[in-house]
Amino acid sequence: MWELDSERPVYIQLIEKLKADIISGYYKPGDKLPSVRELAAQALVNPNTMQKALSELERTGLIYTHRTSGRFITSDESIIRKLKEEAAVEQVREFTSSMKQLGFKLDQIIELVAKLLKDEGNQEV
Amino acid sequence: MRAILECRTLNKKYANLVALNNVNLTIERGKIIGLLGPNGSGKTTLIKLINGLLVPSSGEILIDGKKPGPETKRIVSYLPERTYLPDWMKVADAISFFEDFYSDFDKGKCMDMLKRLNLNPGMRLKNLSKGTKEKVQLILVMSRQADLYCLDEPIGGVDPAARDYILNTIISNYNENASVIISTHLIADIEKVLDEFIFIKDGNITVHASVDDVRSREGKSIDTLFREVFRC
User: Fold this and answer.
1) Range of the domain at A62
2) Which value, in Å, is the radius of gyration of the alpha carbons in chain A?
3) What is the DSSP-derived secondary structure letter of residue A74?
4) Are A68 and A102 members of one domain?
5) A41 vs B171: CB contact, 8 Å cut-off?
6) Which residues of chain A are within 8 Å of residue B171 when distances are taken between CB atoms?
């Protein structure tokens, strides 16, 4: 599902979504991407905008174009791993910053997270 | 490549009403452009001038460098605000009509799209719902391999799910050398498919810009901007 909000540039949101699909493994290393037109139709956006997003991803090395057969996800798993780590760091930053806004100190946050995860772990067993 | 549409100090007056006032506008190929403005702002007047249904009071309008006439009608595919297909026609009659009129009409493509909508060419237009009739007409218009598509309020009369279908039909059927002008006041529904948008107010073009440029500069949607600019 492509959910786009209306305040931010469309192409930036397309880049984020495609990156998320690569990180989550929806697209695997070496996978062929659908054509610009197909992707644009899925996301219900302008093909030019999709093209712009794909060019941007190409610039970062995450996808590449094979002259005759289309676009592919990089097979270089280290690039994808790096992207995944960046995304994780971003999530943790956001989380800790909102926790700090709530008035928690770092050691309290860690303690709380550890406790919650432990409880959840126990429930699953 | 030559711009697909060019207006130079274009004016249109009806009796003592100024419908278009000194419009200067260039539209390049390969773009989807939203022509956005409140009721009575001049959207339909501009579209009718492009299609040669009205003549300018002064100034010039050029399609692929030519004045509106048989040559330009060959490359412009027009969806008017209201349907002009007579009620007695079957869908198949309307298809033959388009086939006779336009050498760039792709019947295979048209049948394909109708089939995906589960529409039977044997059905009579008068038995179709308003929304379905609008879809049929859009399919006919988008089945041409035109250079410029002018769609006057293509999503006005249909529900949100049908709007998505219509947008999908538009983005998957124009080619990279063609441009699409969509006139509407339902901006929120279409702004993500637009490259550029034009605000028209009392016959004047007040903004002509790229959607993503405005979103990154202003941090707001075109719909929000419209509500601010056209606040009553």
Assistant:
1) 10-75
2) 19
3) -
4) no
5) yes
6) 37, 40-41, 44-47
Q: What are chain B's domains?
A: 5-229 (3.40.50.300)
Residue A1 lies in a domain: no
* Residue to substitute from A42, A44, A51, interface B, most B β-carbons within 10 A: A44
Same domain, A70 and A84: no
A17 and A36 fall within a common domain: yes
Look at chain A and report how many structural domains it folds into: 2
Chain A with chain B: Cβ pairs closer than 8 A:
57
Residue that is last in its domain, among A37, A53, A75: A75
Subunit contact A44:B164, Cβ cutoff 8 A: yes
Verify whether the Cβ–Cβ distance B171 to A45 is below 8 Å.
yes
Tens-digit pLDDT profile for chain B (232 aa)? 789 999 999 999 999 899 999 999 999 999 999 999 988 899 999 999 999 999 999 999 999 999 999 999 999 999 998 888 999 999 999 999 999 999 999 999 999 999 988 889 999 999 998 888 888 999 999 999 999 999 999 888 778 888 888 888 888 888 889 999 999 988 988 998 999 999 999 999 999 999 999 999 999 999 999 999 888 7
Long-range contacts of the stretch A115-122 (C-beta < 8 A, 24+): none
Structure token digits, residue B201: 């107010």
Tokens representing B77?
């595919």
User: Concatenated DSSP letters for A3-49?
Assistant: ---SSS-HHHHHHHHHHHHHHTTSSPTTPBPPPHHHHHHHHTS-HHH
Whether the full predicted model's pTM is greater than 0.90, yes or no, is no
3-state secondary structure of B27: strand
Looking at the fold, whether A65 and A83 belong to one and the same domain comes out as no
